[in-house]
């Protein structure tokens, strides 16, 4: 194969730039990396659904006050938003896969801490583990869209759908399996919550070799240098050897634009906030809402599983449809309206049709979350901008959306009923439809913004 005549700074042997990396790797490496994405996504929602499934039992065992119960549901969601900039800070310093592994380490340690029952420490391990795990989820949320944008550029819609579906599966498994694990462990809550640390640890061990699999790709490069594929005039046909990348000092250029000054990025962020209001409320409050309406723990867990299983279906189909068209506005509006109406009916609709309401909510929520995450890549010109847009969306989106989870608890504490929350979710669904229409238009952040 030809070797590049490097007319500038030489790069270490074997480096492959991100721009050409997906076309140079083995198909088996591609399959393995896709499996790693699935394994990482499988651990990004167990934090929320596992505690929610046994929340009444946890409250009784620990003597939690109403305020502490609300904080236990709200703090993880708030942290996912507030700590999203940590992912954006780590990505250019560690690289995509080391950052994803760091996220799994934090999740594993956090879930393990939540399962500790040490005399004299009281609730400290529970709260510390929640914070640590929330940080890991925040970093993982920011990193996965960048991994998809960088490593699967030709399959962005499919891979976005796959990892969003698996995130939903993560929540579904935690909702469905936590109660059986609780019963199998003789009603020991700490062992029940600690069970999910083993799942995360296994995923961490299996994803670890990804660092070896991507060893030939360009790592961190000083900011004054740029890496690019070779041009035709830089290739010598007479000299055999492995293909190289060109690393050179860039010409003076304007500073990289920030997504914080882009209308498109703000529309995406508002959409993320609206969908987060209902998304995390499903994990934190759907089971307590159904139990408050008269269902037992097992029946409520089954309906939460049905809802999240429907989310998996919606999250797999919608991104594929979204990636095939320049505008995702109509698709986003439909998903938003299904989400809002479905949650309203779960709270105040006929109880006998709860399975239908759960199915409606799940299809809408899964599609809405997936299309919002897919548009991170579709609305970004490159992986670097995708990382910045992802951090902005999830910092503000999940940060603001977390107050929906808090509001449900506060409204229930004030009124003794979950019915007022139906107004909240109806309004968030309508707002998501409006911002989804704007975010879904054919635009690129700071490249093709359209008319004001």
UniProtKB/TrEMBL annotation:
Query: Where is the sequence biased in composition, kind Basic and acidic residues?
Result: 230-246
Q: Which InterPro entries match?
A: MFS, MFS_Cyanate_Porter, MFS_trans_sf
Q: Which organism is it from?
A: Micrococcus cohnii
Protein name from the UniProt record: CP family cyanate transporter-like MFS transporter
Question: What are the start and end residues of every segment in region (Disordered)?
Answer: 230-259
List the keywords (alphabetical): Membrane, Transmembrane, Transmembrane helix
MF terms per GO, please? transmembrane transporter activity
TM ranges: 31-55, 61-82, 94-113, 125-148, 160-182, 194-214, 265-287, 299-323, 330-349, 355-378, 390-412, 418-439
């Amino acid at each position: 194969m030809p070797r590049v005549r490097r007319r500038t700074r030489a790069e270490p042997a074997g480096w492959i730039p991100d721009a050409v990396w997906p076309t140079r790797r083995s198909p088996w490496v591609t399959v393995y990396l896709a499996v790693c994405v699935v394994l990482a996504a499988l651990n990004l929602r167990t934090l929320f659904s596992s505690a929610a499934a046994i929340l009444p039992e946890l409250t009784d065992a620990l003597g939690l006050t109403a305020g502490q119960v609300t904080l236990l549901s709200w703090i993880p969601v708030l942290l996912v938003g507030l700590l999203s900039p940590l992912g954006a800070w780590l990505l250019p310093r560690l690289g995509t896969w080391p950052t994803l592994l760091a996220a799994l380490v934090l999740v594993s340690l956090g879930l393990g801490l939540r399962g500790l029952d040490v005399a004299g420490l009281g609730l400290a391990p529970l709260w510390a583990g929640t914070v640590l795990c929330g940080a890991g989820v925040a970093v993982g949320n920011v990193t996965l869209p960048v991994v998809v944008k960088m490593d699967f550029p030709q399959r962005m819609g499919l891979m976005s759908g796959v990892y969003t579906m698996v995130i939903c599966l993560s929540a579904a498994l935690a909702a469905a399996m936590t109660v059986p694990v609780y019963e199998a462990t003789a009603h020991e809550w700490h062992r029940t919550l600690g069970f999910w640390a083993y799942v995360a640890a296994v995923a961490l061990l299996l994803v670890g070799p990804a660092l070896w699999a991507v060893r030939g790709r360009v790592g961190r490069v000083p900011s004054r240098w740029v890496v690019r594929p070779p041009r035709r005039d830089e290739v010598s046909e007479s000299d055999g050897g492995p293909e190289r990348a060109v690393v050179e000092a860039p010409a003076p250029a304007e500073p990289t634009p920030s997504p914080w000054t882009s209308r498109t990025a703000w529309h995406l962020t508002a959409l993320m906030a609206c969908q987060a209001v209902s998304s995390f409320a499903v994990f934190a409050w759907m089971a307590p809402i159904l139990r408050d309406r008269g269902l037992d723990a097992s029946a409520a867990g089954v309906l939460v599983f049905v809802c999240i299983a429907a989310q998996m279906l919606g999250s797999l189909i919608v991104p594929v449809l979204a990636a095939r068209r320049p505008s995702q506005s109509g698709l986003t509006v439909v998903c938003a309206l299904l989400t809002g109406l479905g949650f309203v009916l779960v709270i105040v609709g006929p109880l006998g049709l709860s399975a239908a309401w759960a199915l409606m909510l799940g299809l809408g929520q899964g599609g809405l979350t997936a299309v919002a995450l897919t548009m991170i890549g579709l609305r970004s010109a490159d992986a670097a901008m995708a990382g910045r847009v992802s951090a902005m969306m999830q910092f503000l989106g999940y940060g603001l959306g977390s107050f929906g989870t808090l509001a449900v608890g506060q409204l229930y504490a004030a009124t003794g009923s979950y019915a007022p929350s139906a107004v909240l979710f109806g309004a968030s669904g309508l707002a998501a439809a409006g911002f989804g229409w704007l975010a879904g238009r054919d635009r690129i952040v700071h490249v093709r913004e359209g008319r004001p």
